[in-house]
Write a structure and sequence with these properties.
Layout lengths: L3 E5 L4 H12 L3 E6 L9 E7 L4 E2 L1 H5 L3 E4 L12 H24 L6 E7 L11 E2 L9 H17 L5 E6 L1 E4 L2 E2 H10 L15 E3 H13 L5 E5 L7 H11 L11 H8 L4 H4 L3 E2 L2 H4 L10 H9 L2
Parallel strand pairs: 1-2, 1-5, 2-3, 5-6, 6-8, 7-13, 8-12, 9-11
Antiparallel strand pairs: 3-4, 9-10
Helix pairs in contact: 1-6, 3-4, 7-11
Length: 304
């Protein structure tokens, strides 16, 4: 019988790609959705509503693994106090809901794998290399990820293996971060942001999904893992590479930091600061990245 993977946030960019990979590798997939959807041969849909604290318990009962991707988008809207609260609560409450169902039914999973972010290391200006033992930051990104991971760790108290995937900037085909950038760069209006020196740890969506698959199959994986290519990509390097793929060299000056701050408020730190992260721990599991060169990854995503 096929092992079943229950995914929260399965209808999003990463979730869709992950579902395809899991089905290809012989898993059946269940997806938690706020709306009713039609089941297919390989994918079943179950309803949940975190705000109403409701979940179809059959989804959890039938699962061998849970992959938790759900949560309000960090960069979708300006960071008001209300928005910040929604970002944090969407991560904590959704995991708490799953925890309560697992505990109530004494359900044992083979593993619980949760998304997290390299934002746990905070907004850093400089070349310090962060690994999984680097202390979390006390800024909004850092504290959000700490609470996110603490919620995931609560599942471990039920005797379930927990893996947390600290994700970098995800590059994908016709979606994700590139979807917002390509119209600008396509019309030769691309430019670096702020100083341009901020590091941008990235990962191709295929590699990210492969890490989730590894987390299911490799029962020695526990705790946090950085999911980003360990290289020297800065905002300037990224911008120049993307422009070159579209056949030109950057000609516009860097977008001034103060303009970005005026437009985005506190959320501007996402664009104006960065961090370098080590990928040694995930590679020590035997995992190998398919895409380690930025130019190759961008060309694959853009069909260039």
């Amino acid at each position: 019988m096929k092992k079943n993977v229950l995914i929260s946030g399965g209808t999003g960019f990463i979730g869709k790609n992950l579902t395809h990979l899991l089905v290809e590798n012989g898993f059946s997939v269940s997806i938690l959705s706020r709306s009713q959807r039609q089941n297919t041969e390989d994918v079943s849909y179950y309803q949940w509503d975190v705000d109403k604290y409701y979940i179809d318990e059959n989804a959890v009962a039938n699962a061998d693994y849970v992959i938790h991707l759900a949560g309000e988008g960090i960069a979708d809207k300006r960071w008001t106090a209300k928005r910040k609260q929604a970002i944090v609560e969407s991560r904590e409450k959704s995991i708490q809901l799953i925890y309560d169902v697992l505990k109530k039914n004494n359900k044992k999973l083979d593993a619980f794998v949760s998304a997290s972010g390299i934002g746990i290391y905070g907004a850093i200006n400089g070349s310090e290399i962060c690994n999984e033992n680097t202390p979390p930051a006390n800024d909004f990104l850092g504290t959000t990820c700490q609470k996110w991971e603490a919620a995931a760790d609560s599942i471990g108290s039920l005797g379930i293996r927990v893996v947390k995937i600290r994700t970098g900037l995800v590059l994908g085909k016709e979606d994700g971060f590139l979807k917002k950038l390509t119209p600008i760069f396509k019309f030769r209006l691309g430019a670096a942001l702020g100083s341009g020196k901020q590091y941008m740890p990235w990962i191709h969506v295929d590699d990210l999904c492969a890490i989730y698959l590894e987390a299911l199959n490799n029962n020695t994986m526990n705790g946090a893992y950085n999911a980003a290519v360990f290289d020297n990509t800065t905002n300037t390097v990224f911008s120049k590479t993307l422009a070159k793929i579209y056949g030109y060299s950057l000609w516009l000056p860097n977008v001034p930091a103060f303009l970005i701050k005026m437009a985005m408020g506190e959320m501007a730190q996402i664009l104006l600061t960065g961090r370098r992260v080590s990928s040694v721990k995930i590679q020590e599991t035997g995992f190998k990245f398919q895409f380690t060169a930025l130019k190759t990854a961008l060309r694959d995503c853009l069909g260039k």
